[in-house]
Amino acid sequence: MAMKNNIESNVAATERKSPDGGWGWVIVFSSFMIHFIMDGITYSMGDIYLHPMMEVLGCNRGTVSFIFGMLPAITLGSGQ
Q1: How far, in Å, CA of 46 to CA of 48, rounded?
Q2: Is 69 a member of any domain?
Q3: Using CB atoms within 10 A of its CB, is residue 64 exposed (0-12), middle (13-18) or buried (19+)?
C-alpha cells in the first residue's frame, strides 16, 4: 500500500501544466490555416489571372505563366 501511494505521489509530482495555458495548439492550428490559405492563393494566382493578364498585356500563355512562376521562385529562393 505504501508503494502504491509513493507511485501515485510521484506521478502527481511529474504532471506539469503547460506554461501557455494550453493555447499552443491554437497557435499551431492558426499557423497551419494561414499557410494553407496563403499558399493556396500564391500558387493559384496563375490559374485565376492567366486569361485576363494575357488580354491586358497582349502576351502569350508562356510569358504570363513565367511572370506568375516568379512569385514562388523568389519567395522560396529568398528563404522566406
Answers
A1: 6
A2: yes
A3: buried
| Structural domain of 58 | 44-80
Q: Determine the Cα–Cα distance for residues 50 and 43; give it in Å rounded to an integer.
A: 12
Closest CA to 49 of 65, 70, 62: 65
Task: Cell 528563404: give the residue.
Answer: 79
Output the pLDDT for position 4: 57
Per-residue pLDDT of the chain (80 residues; tens, 9 = 90+): 555 555 566 655 566 777 777 788 899 999 999 999 988 887 787 778 888 988 998 989 888 888 888 887 888 888 86
Q: What's the total number of domains in the chain?
A: 1
SS3 call for 11:
helix
Q: Which three cell numbers stand for residue 47?
A: 490559374
The answer to the question of residue 64 being in a domain is yes
Residue 30 lies in a domain: no
The answer to whether position 65 is within a domain reads yes
